Structure formats: structure tokens, C-alpha cells
Amino acid sequence: MGTTARTSLTHWGAFSATVVNGRLEKAEPLAGSGADPDMIGALPALVHSDQRIDRPHVRRSFLEHGHHTGGAGRGDEEMVPVDWDKALDIVAAELIRVHVDHGPKSVFGGSYGWSSAGRFHHARTQVRRFLAAAGGFTDQVSNYSWGAAHAILPHVLGSADSVSRAATAWETIASDGDVVVAFGGLNAKNWRVTSGGAGHHHIPEAIAKAAAKGVKFVIVSPLADDIPLGLDATLIRPRPNSDTAIMLALAHEAIVTGRADRAFLDRYTSGFEILADYLTGKTDGTPKTLDWASAISGVEVTELRTLWETIRQGRVMLSAAWALQRADHGEQPFWALVALASVLGQIGLPGGGFCFGYGSMNAVGASARGGYVPAMKGIANSRGMGIPVASFADAFLNPGKEIFFNGRRVRYPDVRLVYWAGGNPFHHAQDLRKVEAAWRRPETIIVHEPWWTPTAKRADIVLPATTTLERNDIGGTSRDPHVFAMPRLIDPVGEARDDFAIFRALAERLGCRQTFDEGLDEQKWLRRLWKQTEARGAEEGINVPDFETFWQEGFWNVPLPEMPEVLLSDFRADPEGAALATPSGRIELHSDTIAGFGYDDCPAHPSWIAPNEWLGNAESDELHLVTNQPAKQLHSQLYQAHEHNGPVAVRIAPVDADARGVRDGDRVRLWNARGACLATAKIDESLRAGVLVMPTGAWFEPGRDGTERNGNPNVLTSDRRTSQLAQGCAALSALVRIERAGRSGEEER
Ligand SMILES: Nc1nc2c(c(=O)[nH]1)N[C@H]1C(S)=C(S)[C@@H](COP(=O)(O)OP(=O)(O)OC[C@H]3O[C@@H](n4cnc5c(=O)[nH]c(N)nc54)[C@H](O)[C@@H]3O)O[C@H]1N2
Ligand SMILES: Nc1nc2c(c(=O)[nH]1)N[C@H]1C(S)=C(S)[C@@H](COP(=O)(O)OP(=O)(O)OC[C@H]3O[C@@H](n4cnc5c(=O)[nH]c(N)nc54)[C@H](O)[C@@H]3O)O[C@H]1N2
Ligand SMILES: [Mo]
Asked: What is the dotted CATH code of the domain comprising 168-363?
């Protein structure tokens, strides 16, 4: 006992921890790291929250009748505490039963969500390893963050690297750039977070440097908050989901004014002529002019002309936030951005070309050597299958239904058992009332969670997991030059166990322990992972400290690369030798492969297709709901560590508020045909009219009348996919109505 101080890591940054008599008393951002002090400071409240699950629990009727009881009572019935052996026996028996009676595909275990920054105890990694070792399962393929990009970019650029790991370094924008046009903006709140956690939050500094050098910024977003504080930027506020039209019109302008870089297009792209015929209207009779884009986007044509004048010369970086592709036809804005950058001809040059995600996550555009953060290897899921990540509710409701997915057909499995460890579907999934219905269908639902989240409350069997602070791990991201030791700082809270330990005990019962743990315990695994880091160092001639030294010092600073990264510079330097992995070896502005799929919702070149739900087809009292990431949380994480004196805030423009008699601070109700939730009105003078902005992050809590009480906007979002190509999450295409909350809403609280 006594006081100890050590460093560790979360997805929201590195911290120094003070532990007094076995309790985390204080957490502060690691000095100089730039991590957010509120998010880091909330760690003691989070870890020692009264929402922690102290013991394993089983739903009352499931305990009494087993899976025959049916799913209707989930979330309503009492959860009964049981001892660990009993809980593990039930889980093991259920896994065996479903495997024997229905086969591996009836076990659903994608477990989407972020859980911990530690790379060994990462719950989602562990559960997928375990279920594969146990004989196979239905996995979730791709992700919510950039599902549409993940599918379209390999057809265009040969890989999804430009969204998953590669980006032109900010320092080249400062040294060589003239203009940054950021579609979806550069929202500073998003730089608090990195997948895997980072030792440095560099973007505010990088932007300040670029601005000081005279780089001009244009922010294209309905929300003025998407301009970093203190940055002098031009704001263009289009209707949500209309960016593709603006990008295509700029490309058209380049063609008709003779600014298109024919030499670049000839040497590095294929299919430009087909795209050009579309842009000039030769194929459909509609030239994609600035006037055309103005009518679609609601942006004055003079503003679009000024934007064109701004980008027609100088070194121009075109960036798109990931949010743009989380919408109906979300493949199109990313493809259109690559097309516009191709027409301008600066791809592969420092400070120019295109980039995805500068405004989406910390460490995008940082300079770092990849490959030093060790990753756990997966176990082949050869008897299982995968479905698109966002399709799980649809799959639970429609076993046997066939969907198209990037040129393949996928037949939904008959899901009988759900295993979720490290995610919160009752936070993240769209159309939560549909998810509620889908959640009643499986026979058995098992959840590992440290806290009583809405998902944990709706399980049959809940196993309490430790948090990062209660176990040893290694964390970091390849986009940041640090690797962190994450030492066990406190004992497990209550009877919580590590996800790894839980799966080990289950693997023992199922007879697959050796396949799952390879005979190694936590310490041996961490040392094995560190050997991977050492091997990477040996390849590159970089001196890596030994494990003991690394652990003692708390983190290791990976030496910076000699040259800052420039996306696709290799390809630019040598288009034959470093050909892209597309059929043509070039950037595809028209794709024969996609043409071959014949999808009406994803044509063979970047195209404007009106969204299913947007201001272009709204009734006069409907508004477009943008649901962005929460400022001081990581998704649903940290919600329980903050005080809430009312439901989450929704931003509304003054004219829309006035029309409805809504005042700042009013309790409001948002609704559409899918559902309803409460929120607290926040009048935002600079928000585009017709748009509401409400962050995700609230814990789902439906009231007796079905209205969600905490402000979880996913009761309003649609479960439609981006297209048959990506089957991605399209949460950002949703129309809603809003009014002051009636008395019934208030009485219930
Ligand atoms: N409307 C709308 N919806 C969206 C989005 C949007 O933009 N708009 N964005 C989407 C995106 S990009 C994402 S990434 C998702 C986020 O998806 P979510 O699933 O909501 O993400 P988290 O809240 O990070 O979920 C992680 C869960 O793991 C738990 N956990 C933490 N540590 C551990 C551990 O060690 N073990 C176990 N077993 N559990 C642990 C946490 O308590 C939490 O419940 O939301 C998506 N949903
Ligand atoms: N603080 C914090 N940071 C996070 C996260 C978090 O939970 N908390 N989550 C992380 C994760 S998992 C992810 S995937 C990324 C997500 O990164 P993004 O998806 O890029 O982030 P969002 O905040 O959802 O959206 C960014 C901005 O896009 C704008 N926008 C939305 N729709 C449109 C549109 O149609 N056109 C234009 N021009 N603009 C639009 C919105 O105004 C919004 O503020 O964020 C990461 N960063
Ligand atoms: Mo994400």
C-alpha cells in the first residue's frame, strides 16, 4: 500500500497516475502530451464508478429455464449474481449446445467497439481469437468509422491505406502548402482521441504552424465548431451530404477552364474520359457546373466561384473527414475527392493532393514509423463467416436473407448465440428500436463489460471485466512515435477478471485452451509481443530497448522517420515500378470492376446521387440531423464518469428555434418514424439553418412511452446501408422533427 505514480495509456491519451492505498486517486495528462485534462482526469471516477459490475450475473428467467425462456425479458428482468464457476459453466454449455445443434455460424461474435488501448487485452481481439479457437463464429467485417471508404478505396487506389494508416504529414503542408480545403472541417474535439492511444496530440500545433506560414484554410461544414479555435478560416456551409456535388463541380470547372492537369491524368489515372463525359453532361445532359452544385448544396454560387479561384492555383491539400462517408452513398464523396485531386494533379507532392481524416482523429498526418506497436495475431475463422459490421440487427431479424457486398453475395446466418466483449451496440448502432427488436431474437446473449452499460443490462449472462488499469499491457498506434507500457496499477475491482482470463477458463472447458492461449500467460504474451517490436527494429536497424528497460521506463520513443510522409509519393515517382494494386495499376476514375457489379446505388465513376433522406427531399418542418462524435467522451465511454443535468445538447440554428418557440436550454423532443429522444436545446448562431447537430455518447434509456431519455440520437438514425458495395453505416443521413418537450416527457423523469 502507500502511494505510487506511473504512466499508462487510454485511447484518449497518455497519463500519469497516482495510486493511494490501492485506489486510483488522480490521473493527469502525461507532461507535454497535449491530452485532454478533463477526459484523463475522469479516470478515477470511471474506474471506481458505482456502475462497475461487481460479480457475474445471470438474467432471472434464464437462470431458471435456460435458453428456452426466450429473449423478451432482456433488459427488464432482475439480474441475479452467481459465482464465477457457475457463470462459466453456463457459458461453456451454451457455446457447446449452439455449436452442436446449429453450427459455428450461429454463434455471433463480432463484438464491434473500441474497449481498451492495450493491444494484448483488447477485448475485441481476444473474443475473436477465442471464438475462432472454439470452432468458428460469425464475425463482423469492416468498421463504423470508414466502412464506405474501406470498400471503395481499394477499387480506386488499390488499397484502403489512405484511410486506415497513411496520410501526408502536416509538416509538408507548412513547408510546401498554400491552401487546405477541409470538407467536414477540422474539429478539434476529435484530436483528443487515437485508436490505440498516442503520446502526442500534435495537430493544433501543426495547424498553427501552417497558418503562421500563410497557408489558407477553407472549412466546408454546416457547423462553425469544425474550425479549430483561433484559426482564421473561410467557412462554407453546405447542406449535409451534398459535398460530392461541390467536388464534382470544381472538377468540371477545372476541365472547362483548361486547368485540368492532362499530363497527370494521362500518366497516373485511368477512366478520366468517361468521368469527363459525365461532368460535362455528355452522358446525362447535365453539365456539373457551379450553378448546378449551388442548387444542390444551397451554397451561393459566388462562394463556390471564390472557392474555385482559391484552389485553381498554388499547392492545394483537399481533405475529407470520415464523417462524410458515414452517409447515404458515402462511397461517392471520397471517390469524388480523389477525382478532384487527380484533376488538379498534385497527388504525391508535399502539401498537396488529398487526405482523409485530418479532422477525424489525432495522429492523422503525424510523422511516425509504423510497425513498432505489436499486434496480436488472429486465429483463422475457417468454419465461420463474416457479415458487414453494421448489418447485425438486420441479420438477427432475417436469417437466410441474401445481400450484396462488394461483388459478393452474403447469406445471413441463423444467429442463436451472441457474444459481445468490448463494444456497446445499444450506443453505436442505428435505429435502436430495430436493434431492440433484433436483440430479442437470439436464444442466448453473453456480454463482458466492466460497467452496467445498456448492452450489459440487456444480456442473459454478464461477466465483469477488468479495466486497463487492473492488468498489464502494451499500447500505442503506428501513427504516433511512442509505445507505452501499461502496468497494472490497482487490483481488479470487485470480482472482475481480465477478458483473456475469462476466455482461458472457457477454452479449458471447451478443450481448446492450447489453440487459444498457445500455452502462454499474460507475462509471456507481453514478452512475445515485445519480441515482434524488437524484430521490427532489427529489420530497420533501429535500436529497441529490451523488455525490462521498456517496462521500467514506462514508454519508448520510436525514432522519427528521416523524411515526412507524403501520400502516394512512391507512385508519383515511379508509376510503373510502384504501380497501384488496381486492375489498371493507376488511380481509377472509372472502375470496370464496379461497373461489373451493376449496383444502382454505386455507379462505376464518382457520381452525384441524392441521398434517401436529406434537405433536398425534406418536408417543410423536417431538419437534417448530424450526429457527430462526443467532445469529452470516447463514444459511450466516460458517459458514466461525467455529471449530467439533463439530456445531451442538440444544436439548433436561431431561425429553426424561433419557428418552433424553442429557447436556449429548453428540454426538447426529437422524433421521426423510427423513434424519439429528448435533448437540451442549444442555440448556435453560426449553425446552418435546417441542420441539427447532436453528438453520440448518451447511454440508451427508453422511457415508458418509448422516448429515449438521455439523448441517444441513434433512435432516430436509419439502418440503411451506404450502398450494396460497402454496406457501410449511413448514420448521417437522417431527417427529424423537433419541438419543446411536452409535459408527459417531463413527468416521467
Ligand atoms: N449516429 C452515429 N452513430 C455512430 C457514429 C456516428 O458518427 N453517428 N459513429 C460510429 C463509430 S465511428 C464508432 S467507432 C462506434 C463506437 O462504438 P461503441 O461500441 O459505442 O464504442 P465504445 O463506447 O468505445 O464501446 C466500448 C465498450 O467497451 C467497454 N470496455 C472498455 N474496456 C473494456 C475491457 O477491457 N473489456 C471489455 N469487455 N469491455 C470494455 C466500454 O465500457 C464500452 O461499453 O459508434 C458508431 N455509431
Ligand atoms: N472526442 C472524440 N474524438 C473522437 C471520437 C470520440 O468518440 N470522441 N471517436 C473517434 C472515432 S472512432 C472516429 S471514427 C472519428 C470520426 O471522425 P469524423 O466522422 O470525421 O467525426 P465527426 O465528429 O463525427 O464528424 C466531423 C464533422 O463532420 C461534419 N459533417 C457531418 N456531415 C457532414 C456533411 O455531410 N458535409 C460536411 N461538409 N460536413 C459534415 C460535422 O459537422 C462534424 O462535426 O472520431 C474519432 N475522434
Ligand atoms: Mo469510429
From this structure: 3.40.228.10
